[in-house]
Structures are given as structure tokens and as C-alpha cells.
Amino acid sequence: MRIILLGPPGAGKGTQATRLIATHGIPQLSTGDMLRAAVAAGTPTGLKAKDVMAAGGLVSDEIVIGIVADRIEEEDANRGFILDGFPRTVAQAEALDAMLKSKDKPLDAVIELGVDEAILGARIAKRVAETIASGGTVRPDDNADAFKTRLAAYRELTAPVSDYYRQTCRLQVVDGMAPIADVSQQIDRLLSAPSSEPMRKQA
Ligand code: ADP
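^ thats the input. predicted complex w/ adenosine-5'-diphosphate below
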């Protein structure tokens, strides 16, 4: 099963991906996590990505597409994967289509978590508070300024990715404002429904 989760920062992609890993036994490929690992390890990619990530901007398509192309070649991705945080631009979506076409392994589902942008800031603030309470390290881009930039990047560059999949009838939208368990249920329903009947949301 090859699944993409779309939605703005704070929409709950990571939360749902974690659950899907457990239920479907496929890996979560989070470009954010992969890039943070590269930054922590001080690799050439990490050095290039560090500042732009901390400011809330997008890392170049070239770097991110390269990371994903390598990652989906790994053995654990053979049976499928959940992409979280990728594609984030139409160029990335086109590159992914080309990669999967060459492997004859099309996407099974593109699911957007639809959320009201007004609540996203509060969700991030909650994540920061929980991280601090548990003694963890707060992400450098989980602050008000960087979050504004992340949201702006989402509106400008990532929202068109939803249109890209909508135009080819591959986009399915769930209500990301519902409680976590309800969102999970909506996703499960979509994944078990015949793929010939995509649920489409009017923009
Ligand atoms: P969020 O929780 O905001 O969705 P992620 O953990 O997915 O954030 O990503 C954190 C940062 O990593 C992004 O703000 C961006 O700088 C970089 N990044 C992650 N995925 C991509 C991508 N597909 N293209 C470009 N930059 C990316």
C-alpha cells in the first residue's frame, strides 16, 4: 500500500502515519524526519538544509527528491510506504509520479487532512508545551515566526499539490478537525473502499 498524507503543518499527518505504520506494517517516510536526521548527523545535505528549515522555508526540490528516490529503493519500502511531508511542491509530485511509474508501483491513496488554519497555531503551541513537559527538545522551527513562514510556504507551494491530485481524481479528503480516533476511522474507511470511487472535495 502506497499512501500520501497531505495537509498543513500541525494537521496531524505524523499522528495518523504512526498509527498506519502499526496497522499496515509499512514504513512512514517523513522527509521532515529524514532532513532532521541529516542535520543532526551534519551530512552535506544536513548542512545545506539546516538554516532554511529552522526559518520555516522549504528545502530545495532537488535535495528532497533525491532523498525520497533513495529511500523508496530500500527493502522495507518494497511492500509500500506512507509518505508524510512529501510531495510539498508540484515539481515533487511530478517527480514522484515519474519514479513510481518507472517501478510500475502507482499510489494507492492520496489523503488530505482538511483542517481549519485558525487552529494550527494552537496545535503547534500544544506540541511545544508537551515536548518541554516531557523533557524533549523543541524543534527549531516550532516558534511563531518560523510557523508563519511554514504556513505561507504551505499556502503558496503545497496547496497546489492537492489540486494536482484532485485534477487526476486521486485526492481524498478527511475531516482533520475531528478527534484523532475519528480521523483514523475515516482514513481506514477510505483505504478499504474500492479505489475506483475517490471521494473528492470541492475546493
Ligand atoms: P511540518 O510538521 O511543518 O509539516 P515537517 O517535519 O514535515 O514539518 O518538515 C520540517 C521542515 O523540513 C519543513 O519546514 C521544510 O523546511 C523541510 N521539508 C520537509 N519536507 C520537505 C519537502 N518535501 N520539501 C521541502 N522541504 C521539506
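The two ends are 27 Å apart (CA to CA).
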